[in-house]
Amino acid sequence: MIRPLYDWTMRMAAHPRAVWVLAAISFAESSFFPIPPDVMLIPLIMACRQRAFMLALVCTLSSVIGGFAGYAIGYFLFDGIGRAVFEAYGLMPTYDSMRSYFDQYGAWVIMIKGMTPIPFKLLTIASGALHFDLLEFAGAAIISRSVRFFLVAALLWKFGAPIRAFVEERLTLVTTVFVLLLVGGFVAVKFIH
């Protein structure tokens, strides 16, 4: 099951509209969508390493713009949509404790957690709901998402062929580790306050 999905993703990476798909996933993940953009970013870079930094830029800009959508959801629609997102992840108690983190650490919360596997949408929605300063939010989002996506791009650009061979030879292992990191991000949000 994993191999056909991987092969499809690699074929999609060569599609003329693949960059638009990457941008859409990156935008949506920052505001409501559960799948991180890495599912497209990594195969796109592995398919054409020369575009690594352009793809990281697309991913970063789309993620930050999507972050503004998430901020707006939190600011204007928290009771309707934002709360539902937190409840869908079982993280409403975490949201309640986030106010003290934002008050104490400010933009550092967004910068540090925005680089981790913790779903970025949770930070963007909470930032809006807590009426975090929009300018600080923008700066922190740009920094955290740039670091995250450009680091992935740099590693794949530098070590692309060996990494691709490793992934293709150990696809089940790589997929399992990716899922564990994704789930670990959710668990970390839930239990680390």
Could you explain how this protein is built, in words?
This protein is mainly α. The chain has one domain. Helix content is 82%, strand content 0%. It has nine helices and no strands. It has helices spanning 2-13, 18-29, 38-47, 52-88, 92-105, 107-113, 120-129, 134-169, 171-191. Helix 2 runs parallel beside helix 4.
Indicate the topology:
Layout: H1 2-13, H2 18-29, H3 38-47, H4 52-88, H5 92-105, H6 107-113, H7 120-129, H8 134-169, H9 171-191
Helix pairs in contact: 1-3, 2-4, 3-4, 3-8, 4-7, 4-8, 6-8
Task: Jot down its keywords.
single chain; 193 residues; mainly alpha; 0% strand
Question: How many strand elements?
Answer: 0
Average pLDDT score: 82
Distance between the termini: 36 Å
Helix content: over 70%
- As for the number of domains, it is 1
**Cα-based radius of gyration, to the nearest Å:** 17 Å
Please summarize what this structure is.
The chain is mostly helical and about 190 residues long. Helices cover about 80% and strands about 0% of the residues. It contains nine helices and no strands.
